[in-house]
Amino acid sequence: MNLQPSTLGAEDSYIWYPTRNGIYSVKSGYHSIKGQALTPASNQSGFDWIKDVWSGTFSPKMKTFLWTTIQKAIPLGANLQSSGVTQEIKCIRCGQRETEAHIFFSCEFAVKVWEYTHLTLNIDIASLPDVASALVAFRNNRCLPPLGVTTPLLPWILWALWTARNVVIFEQRTYTVEETAIRAIKLAREWNQAQLTQKKISTTTQGSIAGLPLLGLSQPPSIGTRIIKTDAAWDKKTQTAGLAWIASEPPSSRTTQGAKIHWNVASPLAAEALAIRNALQDAAASGITFLQIYSDNQTLIRAINGKIFEKEINGILKDIETLSSLFVESSFCFISRAKNGLADSLAKSILRTPLCVMGRPTG
Length: 363
Ligand SMILES: [Zn+2]
Prior knowledge:
The chain is 42% helix and 11% strand. The protein has helices at residues 26-33, 49-54, 60-70, 77-82, 100-106, 108-115, 131-137, 154-171, 177-204, 268-285, 298-304, 314-324, 341-352, 354-358; strands spanning 225-235, 240-248, 255-262, 290-295, 329-334. The longest helix has 28 residues, at 177-204. The radius of gyration is 27 Å and the shape is elongated. The structure holds zinc ion.
């Protein structure tokens, strides 16, 4: 009963349940046969491939570099020795065994490079056992303002240490401690600044994804646009949701509102999606043409704008897509909870009404 299919006749489609995006992959097939959950490999210290590497705020090149390093696939002495390539495994600077921990953290050269960084947390870097543990230890560590780097510095330092080692071996050149540290900070800062510029560009150019209108999310609404703020309150125990939407048409301060109880709702996400579907049905019936809908559920807004796939609410999303095509222009935007107070309290109050309990259909 908790399934919320499309009510507007959207066609069914095949999805592969074990993956989030609903698309089959051989890996997920393998894991489901083996009866394992499809989770990223992690070790005891809480290292998480997705959190610590793939979603990290550093360049794709750094991600690949970290991946190679953690997989012990970078050609440093200890790795080469264990794969039988060479017997020569000494650090080029101090002659100790060249391991991951040594060249990145405990070698005197590395220790001195780390001294150039100014970080918010005091970590005993020289005793870090490997890169994965370092990523975990550095999770909440940031550079202090003078460096001008707001994203993690760790990958860039590792990269600078690694390339400084390589130029000694392959180009017979030496970077000083200072040059190596500055190089890492410079690379991090350059990438940082490039992201800021890119962000500015992407908020001014909007496209259309998967046939869904993806309109100027940051533009102020033009006159004659109906603004609808939606919200839902959800009761886990009874699987009931209170849906609410509040419409206004600036510059007029007059608002109209709608609210509804919905039973058999399995999650807050489904509840919020149902609130938008109801608000759209309401708006479509009133014959308006320009529409801006707000929700404080970021996942939902991303799903509606075609950026992620949510199998749980697929039917509702298809209805939202169908309904939004009835308007000349419709856009779906995120709003912070603080700015959505009216819809929030309306949703909560409808969920609390005695009618909600009495009127519950049976069966
Ligand atoms: Zn060394």
